[in-house]
Amino acid sequence: MTRWASAEALALVAGVFAVLALAGLFVEVLDAVGDADDLTVIDRPTVAWLAAHRTPTLTTVEIAITTLGDAKVLVPLVSLAAIAVAWRLRSWYPIVLTLVGLGGVHLLTNLIKVLVARPRPSPPDQAVTVVGYSFPSGHTTGSLVGFCLLAWLLCLLTKRVSVRVAAWAVAIIAAVLVGLSRVYLGVHYPSDVIGGWLLALAWLGAVAVGARIWRDR
């Protein structure tokens, strides 16, 4: 086995272990939500405290931020970016990457929501009216995957380290802000958001490992 092949194999093994570790952490949060213990003890006090300390200006800002993570905004944006990159590279890879990344995580998130069936915070704590189940946060999960896919697609077009670092930094910051906005607005508990981040990271890791194997083959 060549040195390059050994490095590739090591990277894949590390990737698989990272995915398993993230999935394990997600299961821990899921278990806490199911048993209503551990992490979830901060859920209701946090939402209630934030509801009591909202300001009109900050609420307006948080609504604008949370809109960025809406599937109606993010899915078309990532899809258009994938099509543009696919046309530029003359490759189907960006489109397949987007379909698997976004489509897969939305299916997974909705399936888990139905299975867990956790009610959202009570309407008096909500700054905006939202229906449906609470765990995991769809906005949080979808936005992290979506923003990271945008960074990933941009990185396919450039080898400049500064651009790549900036793209990933913006993606992570934007995703974190969307997740925090869901708690501030009282439509999700902190554990919903933490679970969403872990699920998104695990899914992105799985997609990255799969993409690496596909491209190497």
UniProtKB/TrEMBL annotation:
It comes from the Bacteria. Keywords: Membrane, Transmembrane, Transmembrane helix. InterPro entries: PAP2/HPO, PAP2/HPO_sf. The keyword Zinc-finger does not apply. This is Phosphatase PAP2 family protein. Gene3D superfamilies: Phosphatidic acid phosphatase type 2/haloperoxidase (1.20.144.10). CDD domains: PAP2_like_2. The lineage of its organism: Bacteria, Bacillati, Actinomycetota, Actinomycetes, Micromonosporales. Residues 95-208 form the Phosphatidic acid phosphatase type 2/haloperoxidase domain.
